[in-house]
Amino acid sequence: MTQPQADLFDIYRAGLKTAADLVKASLESAERMQNQQLVAIRSVIDQQSKSATELSRAKTLDELLSVQTRIVGQQFESAVSLWSDLCQAAGENQRVAIGRMQEQLAQARDWMASASLPLVVRQSEETKAHRVKA
Known about the structure:
2 helices
């Protein structure tokens, strides 16, 4: 295998490894998000049970409205927290993906520089040899 072919093979192999790493990071991110969702669902189930108990204990309309207002506030806070966690996980996943792409581009740039340097040197030598003949 010639040197450019070997270099191209190395870049191809590095690209496949980067793709595999990116898939792994994406799957790990999905797992974290699912775990966060599961924790959130369990928390909502617990809150719902407590809320039902509190609502059943209300004796007056004012108590009922007070409990309902507090429950709505807790549910809104839980929803905002869940969305915040999901956005944070998605952002982390994008950060990892962009980092992997930057690494791959840096490797490709380095390969292109190392592959083109011998061509420039050889062309320069051929130009000098051509001038000497003329």
